[in-house]
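// run 5 | inverse folding | seed 20
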């Protein structure tokens, strides 16, 4: 099936930057023909192009530049003085899909690699199959945007990053990778009502426009150094 992994910039010799491109660790991709064709850069420009040209693959992962990552830290000097572009970056991609032919057939899942104000007052549960591999860590946000999303629903189930892979597997009838996906719940039951009429897209108001990100030069900064 078709897929792309959109990353901010081309991997270079900077180790800090390398570790945030997952496919740099998968030899068959890193040293094969999919590097530069399935793993592509710069992420923002190319994902906008693919949406507008009707070439968005079945499964896409879109990784922001450090300047747009919402990661803690002061990047303002390296990012042209802006330090609040993260929400607008997400909104610009959601808006591009929402205004395209893909809206009625696309589920957008927004996640952060870490966050929660550096402290979570709810201890992670340590029961069931997840506990066998160390259990989940502190909570991170996940937002699902779709024409079929249940409006205003907050799930109280325990999910993990593997739940995203599980959702892809269940949706497309793929075999399990037998890693975290095998012990993670598919969030589809909580998130969607496929019997409802597709919701009309309402554009998200944002401080920074799509044009801003299309003309934003890659910073070359690692998204994280820890």
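// decoded
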């Amino acid at each position: 099936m078709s897929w792309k992994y959109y990353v901010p910039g081309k991997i270079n010799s900077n180790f800090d930057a390398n570790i945030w491109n997952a496919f740099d660790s998968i030899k068959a991709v890193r040293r094969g023909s999919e590097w530069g064709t399935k793993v592509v850069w710069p992420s923002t420009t190319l994902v906008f192009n693919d949406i507008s040209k009707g070439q968005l693959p079945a499964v896409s992962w879109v990784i922001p530049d450090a300047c747009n990552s919402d990661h803690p830290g002061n990047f303002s000097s390296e990012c042209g003085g802006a330090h609040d572009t993260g929400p607008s970056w997400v909104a610009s991609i959601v808006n591009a899909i929402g205004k395209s032919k893909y809206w009625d057939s696309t589920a957008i899942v927004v996640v952060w690699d870490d966050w929660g104000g550096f402290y979570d007052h709810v201890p992670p549960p340590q029961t069931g199959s997840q506990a066998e591999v160390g259990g989940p860590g502190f909570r991170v946000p996940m937002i699902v945007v779709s024409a079929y999303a249940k409006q205003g629903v907050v799930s109280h189930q325990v999910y993990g990053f593997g739940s995203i892979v599980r959702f892809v597997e269940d949706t497309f009838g793929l075999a399990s990778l037998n890693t975290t996906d095998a012990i993670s719940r598919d969030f589809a039951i909580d998130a969607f009502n496929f019997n409802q009429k597709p919701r009309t897209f309402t554009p998200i108001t944002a401080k920074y426009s799509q044009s801003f990100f299309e003309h934003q030069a890659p910073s070359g900064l690692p998204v994280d150094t820890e």
